Every structure is written in structure tokens, then in C-alpha cells.
């Protein structure tokens, strides 16, 4: 049975239209975060910026790793089984609350180890970990919205940086910024986000749901491989910053943080392709399970292939383009916007750029594979990247410092990228030699539509 092009083009248009909307929201979030980061950098200086980065990096890494993969499991099962979504969210929220309490207590105790000689910074660190249960509980609602109502999910994501940046602006104008009140802005905005996510989910869900033992078992069964994949990914993404906090002065951590922020400008766009693909692929695979007709199976297999290839191709192109433009603009922008003291960040950006251009695509490929319930494959690929990170940092960071950490990060992202590309192509049944052929098949319809759109303008001329 030949499916033809008529059925594939709506798949492309529906997927990409949703991606564009999500990417637009992600860009807005990135702009808000950049404005907030700029104000923090200018008001606190490199040393204060470094301390603030250490506190928030530890808090976010703990929130991401400590959930043990349950947030991704909530998104996956809500997308696959909409009728059981209330039970999934209610059960997942209870499990996340327990994990949040454990992680919060651990961070509270560990604060003096991270800041042994800075009481104010240690207090801010403790405050960030006391708030961990809020992070964890709100994540259940947020990831459920990703599976069911992307516009609401985008709004919930945006309200956190919007609130944080607004309060930072107010503090800068009224009383000045300190590390303590900057962290308070971060925590307060998270509370606002949690409240909005809860409100949206109550409107989305028709029932409150119940805690069910079977649902908990299903969540943990899916979450285990996700956890095994997220730990090495978070190590690759954050280990450089966490290690530098112990090896170099806060001023250098601040310079490195600015370079990392600039190198990550492409990630919101690239990640949008995976954010939309993950629940979409979960629904497609659920349809394959629920229907036994060969025609439906063939259609869904083709849809899976096209969504996966679109996610990988467009996220890679976006990463290369945005990071390349940032590298060209940085020598002029950094001194003009942040001041001459941040000039060394430009050289760090150039060292981070090769890996940063690939990192957003890595995120998208992780989500593609998780949407197909292949989290163990992600774990193997990201694990290899984490090993490369550890080796690179162990060799380069003690001798070359922050420049060595940048080089090690780029190498690690490249290793993970190569393995993830091979894994995605293998699961969708596309040999490497056929990638150019499939790329032309995906791009030609868009080129034809662009040509048709331009023809009236040419004829008028």
C-alpha cells in the first residue's frame, strides 16, 4: 500500500506549525532570561554573578536529576492514555513530592560544603533547596500540560522568567541587587509558575485523579531508563560549571557563565522540535498499539519517520545558524553591553561554539527517542558523552582552566551527537547513505511552496 504524499504533508505542516509556536515562546523566554541575566551580571559583577550561577545551577541540576525521570514519564503516559491522565498526574505528583523533600533536605545539609567561607551565599543556597518540593510538585502539572495543551504549557514556561525579570528590574531601580535577593526573585517566580500550572491543569482535567499502585509502577518502569539517560546528560551540561566552582575564582566562573549563556541562545529553538515531537511520537506509537490494520500501521510508521527526521534536521540547522551568528556578533556586543571586564567571555564562546551548535540537536534527539520509548538508547549515547566530559575536564580543567572546560564540553557534545544520530537513523530505518535523499524529500515541498508564494511578486515586477 502506497501512502503517497497527501498524508505526509499534513503531518509535516501540523508538526512544524506547532514547533514554530513553541519556538516563538521559547525565544521569548530566552530573551526574558537574557535580560534578567544581563541585569544580574551588571549589578553584581563577575564575582556575584558567579555565586548566583553556582546557587541556581545546583538547584536546577538537583530538580532535573532528582526527579528520577518521573516528569518525562508523566508526559509520556498522559500523551498515550488521555483518559487515565488524572490518575497519572495525581500519582506522579505524590511521588515527586517525596523526592522533592529528600533532595531539599540533602541540599540544605550540603550548603556549607559548597560555600564554606561565605555565609550569605550558603544561606541563599539553602533557600534554593528548601523550595525544591515546589519545583517537584509543579513539574507534574507542567509536563502534563506539555502532553495535552501546548499553548498553556508555553504560557506556564514563560511566566517564570517574566516574573523573575520583572522583580529584578524593580529591585535594581529601588534598592539594588544582591545575591540573596536575586535568588529570592528566582524562587518567587517559581512559586508563581507553580500556581499557574496548577490552575491550568485543573481546567484541563475533568477529575482530580487518584493515587494508584499500578500507575506508580508504570511510571517508575518508564522513568528508570529516562533517569539513567538524564544523569549523564545533566553531567555533560552542568559538570563544567559545578567543577569550576571548586577550582577557580568566582570571577572566572562568572566569565564562563556569560559565555555559556551566549552559546545557549540556540537551545530554545532547537529544543522546541523535541518538545513537540516527544508527546506526538508517543501518541503515534499508542495508535499503532491500539489498531491492528496494516494501513494504519504503515501510515504511523511513515509519520514517525518524518517527524523524527524533521526534528533532527531542523534543530541541527537552527543550532549551527544561531551559534554562528552569535560568534560573529559577540566581539562587538559583549564589551558594549556588559563592559570590558567581560571581554574574555568572547574567546570562551568560540571554544564552546562547536559543541553548542550540536547540543540543541542532542536535546531534540533525546526527546525523539524517549517518545518512542527508547530511553535506554539515550542513556548509552549520553553516557558516552558524560565519560568524554569527565575525561576532558580531568585532563584540561586543572591545567588550562576555564578554556580547558570549554574545549572538554565541545568534545563531549560531539561524541553524544554522533551516537544519537546513528541511533535515530537506525530506529526509523534510514541508512546513513540515504540521509541526503530523505533530506531532499523533506525540503522540496517547502521549496516548491516558497517558489509559488514568490511567483506573484515576480510577475508584478
Question: Would you mind describing this structure in some detail?
Answer:
With 461 residues, the chain is mainly alpha-helical. It has one domain (8-448). The chain is 87% helix and 0% strand. The chain is built from 15 helices and no strands. The longest helix has 58 residues, at 8-65. It is globular, with a radius of gyration of 22 Å. The model is unreliable at 1-11 and 291-300 (pLDDT under 50). It comes from Candidatus Frankia alpina. InterPro entries: Poly_Biosynth_Transport, Polysacc_synth. It is found in: Cell membrane. Keywords: Cell membrane, Membrane, Transmembrane, Transmembrane helix. This is Polysaccharide biosynthesis protein.
Secondary-structure topology with pairs:
Blueprint: H1 8-65, H2 70-80, H3 85-114, H4 119-130, H5 132-148, H6 150-174, H7 179-204, H8 213-247, H9 250-263, H10 267-290, H11 294-337, H12 344-371, H13 375-400, H14 402-427, H15 435-460
Helix pairs in contact: 1-4, 1-6, 1-7, 1-8, 1-9, 1-10, 1-11, 2-3, 2-5, 2-8, 2-10, 3-4, 3-5, 3-8, 4-7, 5-6, 5-7, 6-7, 8-13, 8-14, 9-12, 10-11, 10-12, 11-12, 12-14, 13-14
Please outline the major beta sheet.
none
Average pLDDT rating: 81
**Total of domains:** 1
What ranges have pLDDT less than 50 throughout 5 or more consecutive residues? 1-11, 291-300
Write the element-wise H/E pattern from the N-terminal end onward.
Answer: HHHHHHHHHHHHHHH
Task: Provide a count of the helices.
Answer: 15
Oligomer: single chain
Helix content: over 70%
Radius of gyration: 22 Å
Structural class, by secondary structure, is mainly alpha
Q: What best-fitting shape do the alpha-carbon axes yield? A: globular
Give a count of the beta strands, DSSP E runs of length 2 or more.
Answer: 0
* N-end to C-end Cα span: 45 Å
Residue fraction in strands: under 5%
